[in-house]
Prior knowledge:
This protein is mainly beta. Helix content is 3%, strand content 55%. The longest helix is centred in the N-terminal third of the chain and has 12 residues, at 177-188.
Amino acid sequence: MLTKFETKSNRVKGLSFHTKRPWILASLHSGVIQLWDYRMGTLIDRFDEHDGPVRGVHFHKSQPLFVSGGDDYKIKVWNYKLHRCLFTLLGHLDYIRTVQFHHEYPWIVSASDDQTIRIWNWQSRTCISVLTGHNHYVMCALFHPKEDLVVSASLDQTVRVWDIGALRKKTVSPADDILRLSQMNTDFFGGVDAVVKYVLEGHDRGVNWASFHPTLPLIVSGADDRQVKIWRMNDTKAWEVDTLRGHMNNVSCVQFHAKQDIIVSNSEDKSIRVWDATKRTGLQTFRREHDRFWILAAHPEMNLLAAGHDSGMIVFKLERERPAFSVSSDSLFYVKDRFLRVYEYSTQKENQLIPIRRPGSNSLNQGPRTLSYSPTENAVLICSDVDGGSYELYIIPKDSYGRGDTAQDAKRGTGGSAVFVARNRFAVLEKSTNQVLVKNLKNEIVKKSLLPTVTDAIFYAGTGNLLCRAEDRVVIFDLQQRIVLGELQTPFIRYVVWSSDMESVALLSKHSIVIADKKLVHRCTLHETIRVKSGAWDDNGVFIYTTLTHIKYCLPNGDSGIIKTLDVPVYITKIYGNTIFCLDRDGKNRPIIIDSTEY
């Protein structure tokens, strides 16, 4: 799990991501609703008009609104631009468990301990339908992302799917007079605008959560019987497909992941579990010492998840999204969809070279992390976190350009990190003994060197040299003479970028950039609030870098500024004149034209 943001607060019962802005709403057991910016890590606003716990909260997709529902039986609709509650919807007779805006119509669905689900029109501020049928508390009710359906979960041990097609026809389509007359009749005689389509029975205890799959006809549910169940539905019936067992206590929330084929669930057993939705096996478990989990939220468009627990909440990602790449003169080598690809800057064309081995299926976060290339031997080293750190060495056949079909036999080995140090030699870090093994292209050890400082990663630092990273410093080590050429105290360094003449180096940590010369003599340090993501040197010795939100520059004297704002994070690979070449998180190459006269 890659934690991006964490808060400490009262128990978090409800969470909702904003679709466009880096915001998340957290509703607390104390009655407060907090609005956080998870990129900056700051509290933007707080709203406290509810009396008692607020269990449900949801952002509107396009309007500056959010809705909340609490133990005071009230549903409140708020405008976050005006920082206030616009109105309150009354009607429920007991605690409100969840509230959600419809993705298209001006509707809100709410679930309550009064055993009903209500659908409200927030424009006319009226209740347009009451769905009765559950005979215990309704713990959750959600709209289907595309169809006219609602799914609900209740402590009566059932999950129900409701058809609200008639309600849509009645309230959304323009009705002529005759229709209106017949509608008045049905209203008068208690018309049915929402009917139960399926009742899903299978849980042995009360069901706490149920939600639809974003695209497939599937439902996932979690209950006090500690089980997560997957259900499939068609036009006429719904049936249980499988049960996921592993939680040791009540399952409080469960969802399908929007982008990957996985299910995420959390529970009062203080754990979050990730499951393979196809194989239906457990992939990962994340535990907390003392905090029971209550709620999950998935970002509608990004790979972010959030979980609320007894003492706050976390925003996290399951996998890194940074593509592994290496630049060699006019070519960029990178990994995408299990293939090694090459992109030529001069022609802006890309080719797929060779397929690379895929790690085992029960592995999240096991994809390639770094890539090192030897141009003379046309060899590439791909490192990943498989087996606690391992590398694969591929020799690219000359005729493979554009074919990319012949599976290569890779030479493999374990090691913290591996990097080429000469045309036919590469260094592998052996963390347990704190030494570097120099190997040839047959994967045979040629030489061993004990490192001068406790190292957890190595980077290229010119032929025959290594840059060794420790917790609080970096060291340049000469493998030939086994001497230290330079040392510099730094924050924890994640990426190292050398200038083309190898005279300058930029050391990138999460929130700072340290610029030094080739002997690690310090030149300047920059600090950033928003996380630093990548960088490259231009021809004039200016370091251009990206944060999550901006492309920025750093002059040799330490002056810096913004060049451009980004909508999505990108990773700079090379700069040619006024063109910045970058890779995005989908592994697409994007040239960005900038005006270099600005700096």
